[in-house]
Specification:
By secondary structure, this protein is an alpha/beta fold. The chain has 5 helices and 13 strands. Helix 2 crosses helix 3. It is globular and about 45 Å long. The N and C termini lie close together (9 Å). InterPro entries: Class_I_gatase-like, Peptidase_C26, PuuD-like.
């Protein structure tokens, strides 16, 4: 563990990006993730979907965030592509599955955000509903959803029994992977959070906590877990 501020790795994505005089492919990440980690007491480290990621290569980290983003390739959980499923981003899939596996091997605290929760479920053997209605009102518009959180869970200790979250997704968890427990649901039954049994801190949320840098509870819990010796 770091002697100073915990180092929190955050997965990124490759996108065509314009900055300065340039219009090139770049590794990018919504800044809210960085600000939330910093304000929660950590130092962010961006992890691009290139190179080889394993336990040895991320051993310098104290915690991991799998960020939101594009749909996971349904072939990774044995399904045919739905007509509303986005084009696969196999570079991210491969990298983030490897990052999750490495983090679990090292018992690093992990926070999966939206796609990140889905990555966690698929990486452990679960599946997804490839399209659901009501949680993605329009591009770049978040649905405010009140979720119910199960008592006795880590998430309940962080957020309480009910809270309102910001959602922007059209896929959701279907079959829950062995070892994961459902800890929160939306009024329509959509799985809104999971936790890995027996882990120091492995939490997935379907919502986007990085959208509210005034509510740092989840990121503070992640950084606090990173500060504790395994």
């Amino acid at each position: 563990m770091s002697a100073s501020k915990p180092l929190v790795g955050i997965s990124t994505y490759l996108e065509r990006t314009r900055f300065g005089h340039w219009d090139v492919e770049a590794a990018v990440l919504y800044r809210g993730y960085l600000d939330c980690v910093v304000r929660a007491g950590g130092n962010p480290v961006m992890l691009p979907p290139v190179g080889t990621w394993d336990a040895e290569s991320i051993a310098f980290l104290d915690a991991l965030v799998i960020a939101g983003g594009a749909d996971i390739d349904p072939a990774t959980y044995g399904a045919e592509k739905h007509e509303k499923t986005g084009e696969p981003r196999r570079d991210r899939d491969e990298t983030e599955f490897a990052l999750v596996g490495a983090a679990l091997k090292l018992d690093l605290p992990v926070l999966g955000v939206c796609r990140g929760m889905q990555v966690l479920n698929v990486a452990l053997g679960g599946t997804l509903h490839q399209h659901v209605e009501g949680h993605n009102p329009a591009p770049a518009v978040f649905e405010h959803t009140e979720i119910a959180i199960a008592e006795g869970t880590a998430l309940h200790g962080i957020l309480g029994g009910r809270t309102t979250v910001q959602c922007h997704h059209h896929q959701s968890l279907d079959r829950i992977a062995d070892g994961l427990g459902v800890t929160a649901q939306a009024p329509d039954g959509t799985v809104e959070a999971v936790e890995l049994e027996g882990a120091r801190f492995v939490v997935g949320v379907q919502s986007h906590p990085e959208q509210d840098i005034e509510d740092l509870r989840l990121f503070e819990a992640l950084v606090s877990a990173a500060r504790r010796e395994a």
